[in-house]
């Protein structure tokens, strides 16, 4: 046995541990590079998914164009057959009319002969030969019958199929790592093991699932369904074709229950009260004496300002009505309004009302004792309908007219907007979202909007049956894809829940909503 000093032995042991530590650090660096490469592969796969989906969309549009051309050719061929048959029928009708005229003429001739005197009648020597009136009429008609001959595919039409092919990626190849590293959005370097737990949590590579979540955000439903409130009926807490929803800063929920001619107010504990149109005593007496129906409140939209006043657009007389929470009407304004529809409350307490037929947005200042004390035109727009505003006073409104082709109730109020515009408190136009808000996506029937605490716009499309999310910085995502039949109103509660008013389900559907969202560019 050789004898070494304690210091040299310890130094040799430290050197041994140092070499092992260096090898472990190299291994961790290698693992980190593999993680970067794996994330690059994941992003490459997401890009391939998107490319295949876009290719499918192009092929689908090509098939639709082919179908349109086929329909045009088919209708043209059918029109030619119809034209040929119409000519034969018209010719036969012409011959029948001539024969009928000849028959009537012969009838008149024989009537005149019958009325002649005996001597004159007998003076005629020989009987005239009776003409054959139906000799020129064909016994048979040669027409072209038409029937549909189905050609092409058998079974349901398919644009294409997703074919799976094995693909092997060698994680040790330098080119794969370089490609993955170039695809990574941020550079990553190995850090010492003594970094704090806060740094570990804040590291952008600590949770790769979050990075991949942004790529698939548009393909999943981001809001979870919690519960449903209400059903079809006329009792308190029930709805019949509700059309508008508003949530106050205190958490009170206002619903324009159009089918029941009322506004319902709910608190966190449940139903609070309802507001109906109540005419004055003399009006009620005169109408009842004459046997006429009392006027109803037919709400189109509802909102409450910071002073506790409830604004309602009433389609019964095309007016703006303002009520207190007790149901007392403090203002009824019709001047300058052709067809008032949407209404929202600004942070200042003023109401903004859209006039669909007048093409303007009006701003109203209402006093609890004096009624409407001031009103002015905020801006002009093309058929503005639904409206909302953010905490800074920026007003978002829908423009145009997008028809809901699946309108089962044949109700005009289910016609929505075609695009979205915005205007600031100073009347300057701001952010615009066009009809085609993405390459392959478009609005079909905007029926409701709201703005969250970050200024992101949330849109209800009743024809798409979806809730869309438009971040303030751009892009979009789909919050709710399934479970809705006709969303016509949306609002956010102070606790961060998303309320969706479903008109044809006659209820309010409650979903979870979080401020942190991912959206597609």
Question: What tags apply to this protein structure?
Answer:
Neuraminidase; 4-stranded antiparallel β-sheet; repeat; 6-blade_b-propeller_TolB-like; 521 residues; alpha+beta
Task: Describe it.
This protein is an alpha+beta fold and 521 residues long. It folds into 2 domains: 115 residues; 275 residues, 6 Propeller (Neuraminidase). It contains 6 helices and 23 strands. The strands form 6 sheets. The protein has a 4-stranded antiparallel β-sheet, with no helix packed on it. The longest helix is centred in the first third of the chain and has 109 residues. It is flat, with a radius of gyration of 38 Å. The two termini are 72 Å apart. The C terminus is likely disordered. Keywords: Coiled coil, Repeat. This is Tripartite motif-containing 32. It holds the Pfam family NHL.
The CATH superfamily of the largest domain is identified as TolB, C-terminal domain
- List the total number of helices: 6
Record field, number of beta strands: 23
The CATH topology of the largest domain is Neuraminidase
Our count of domains comes out at 2
InterPro entries: 6-blade_b-propeller_TolB-like, NHL_repeat
Pfam families: NHL (PF01436)
Organism: Mustela putorius furo (European domestic ferret)
NHL repeats: 226-269, 283-326, 332-367, 430-473, 484-514
Secondary structure: elements and pairs:
Layout: H1 6-114, H2 118-123, H3 174-183, H4 197-202, H5 208-215, E1 225-229, E2 242-247, E3 253-257, E4 262-267, E5 270-275, H6 281-290, E6 299-304, E7 310-314, E8 319-323, E9 329-333, E10 340-345, E11 351-355, E12 360-367, E13 371-380, E14 387-389, E15 395-399, E16 419-423, E17 446-451, E18 457-461, E19 466-470, E20 477-480, E21 487-492, E22 497-502, E23 507-512
Antiparallel strand pairs: 1-23, 2-3, 3-4, 4-5, 6-7, 7-8, 8-9, 10-11, 11-12, 12-13, 14-15, 15-16, 17-18, 18-19, 19-20, 21-22, 22-23
């Amino acid at each position: 046995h050789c004898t070494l000093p304690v210091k040299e032995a310890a130094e040799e042991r430290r050197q041994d541990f140092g070499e092992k530590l260096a090898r472990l650090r190299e291994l961790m660096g290698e693992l980190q590079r593999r993680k970067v490469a794996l994330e690059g592969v994941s992003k490459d796969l997401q890009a391939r998914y998107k490319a295949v989906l876009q290719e499918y969309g192009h092929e689908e549009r090509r098939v639709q164009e082919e179908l349109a051309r086929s329909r045009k050719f088919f209708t043209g061929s059918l029109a030619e057959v119809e034209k040929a048959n119409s000519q034969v029928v018209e010719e036969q009708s012409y011959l029948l009319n001539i024969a009928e005229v000849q028959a009537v003429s012969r009838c008149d001739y024989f009537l005149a002969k019958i009325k002649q005197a005996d001597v004159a009648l007998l003076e005629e020597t020989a009987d005239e030969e009776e003409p054959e009136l139906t000799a020129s009429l064909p016994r048979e008609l040669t027409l072209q019958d038409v029937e549909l001959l189905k050609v092409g595919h058998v079974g349901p039409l398919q644009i294409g199929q997703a074919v799976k092919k094995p693909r092997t990626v060698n994680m040790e190849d330098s080119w794969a790592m370089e490609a993955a590293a170039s695809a990574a959005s941020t550079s990553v370097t190995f850090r010492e093991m003594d970094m704090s737990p806060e740094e570990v949590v804040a590291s952008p590579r600590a949770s790769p699932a979050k990075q991949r979540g942004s790529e698939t955000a548009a393909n999943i439903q981001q809001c979870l369904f919690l519960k449903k409130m209400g059903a079809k009926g006329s009792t308190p807490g029930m709805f019949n074709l509700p059309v508008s929803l508003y949530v106050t800063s205190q958490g009170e929920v206002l619903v324009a229950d159009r089918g029941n001619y009322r506004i319902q107010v709910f608190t966190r504990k449940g139903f609070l009260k309802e507001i109906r149109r109540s005419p004055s005593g003399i009006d009620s007496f005169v109408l009842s004496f004459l046997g006429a129906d009392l006027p109803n409140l037919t709400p189109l939209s509802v909102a409450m300002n910071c002073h506790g006043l409830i604004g309602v657009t009433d389609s019964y007389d095309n007016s703006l009505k303002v009520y207190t929470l007790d149901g007392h009407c403090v203002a009824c304004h019709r001047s300058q309004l052709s067809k008032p529809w949407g209404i929202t409350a600004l942070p200042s307490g003023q109401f903004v009302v859209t006039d669909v037929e007048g093409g303007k947005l009006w701003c109203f200042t209402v006093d609890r004792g004096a009624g409407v004390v001031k009103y002015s035109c905020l801006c002009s727009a093309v058929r503005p309908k639904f409206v909302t505003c953010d905490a800074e006073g920026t007003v978002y409104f829908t423009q145009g007219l997008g028809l809901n082709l699946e309108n089962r109730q044949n109700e005009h109020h289910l016609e929505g907007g075609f695009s979205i515009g915005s205007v600031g408190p100073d009347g300057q136009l701001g952010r615009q979202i066009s009809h085609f808000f993405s390459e392959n996506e478009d609005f079909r029937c905007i029926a409701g909007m709201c703005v969250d605490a970050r200024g992101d716009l949330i849109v209800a499309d009743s024809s798409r049956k979806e809730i869309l999310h438009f971040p303030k910085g751009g892009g979009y995502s789909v919050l709710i894809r399934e479970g809705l039949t006709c969303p016509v109103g949306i609002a956010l509660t102070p606790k961060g829940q998303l309320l969706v008013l479903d008109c044809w389900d006659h209820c309010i559907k409650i979903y979870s909503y979080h401020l942190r969202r991912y959206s597609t560019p």
